[in-house]
Amino acid sequence: MSDACTIRIVxxxxxxxxxRVTGDVTLxxxxxxxxxxxxxxxxxxxxxxxxxxxxxxxxxxxxxxxFFACEKDLTHQSPxxxxxxxxACGKEPFLIIGAIAGG
Length: 103
Fold this sequence. Notes:
Helix content: 10-25%
CATH architecture: Roll
Number of domains: 1
Oligomer: single chain
Distance between the termini: 45 Å
Radius of gyration: 13 Å
């Protein structure tokens, strides 16, 4: 896919606060729609999020954040795997969820 697609992203509250947004974020993402391309576009538009979702150096997902799309956990898939078509057409959101831990 070479045309830009409008992607909806749902961020956890602490990242919405940091990015100074309310509600879902919409972004135009060009090229193949992958977790990597979505996160690259998100960090380009909201540079204050760099390092909060992925490590600055390794670009690996931060612990306690998970990625979901179309009711599937995509957290451990390759960041270069194509996201479902419903994400690429904006029908379904790409969710970044803060995991909860405790004991």
